[in-house]
Amino acid sequence: MVLAASCEALSAQSADALINKLVEKGILTQVEAASLRSETTNDFNRAFAAKSGMAPWVNSVKFGGDFRGRYDGTYQDESNTGPGSATEDRQRFRYRLRYGMTANLADQFEIGLRLGSGEVGSAAPSLGGSPFSANTTLGNDGSRKFIFVDLAYAKWKPEDWFSAEIGKMNNAFWFTDMTMDPDYNPEGAQEKFSWVLNKEHKLDFTAGQYVIYENFNAASNNENFNTNNTLISPNRDVYLFVGQVDWTAKWSDHLSSRLGVAGYAFLNQRDISPALEIFLNQNGTSAAGSNAPNFNPIVARAEISWMFDSAPLFHGKFPLTLGFEYANNPAASSISGSEGYNVGLTFGDARRKHNWMLSYNYKHIGTAALWHGINDDDFGVNARGGTGVAGHQVIASYHLFDPFWMNLRFMQTEQINTPPHVSSEQTRVFFDLLWSF
Question: How far apart are CA 360 and CA 348, in angstroms?
Answer without folding.
Answer: 12
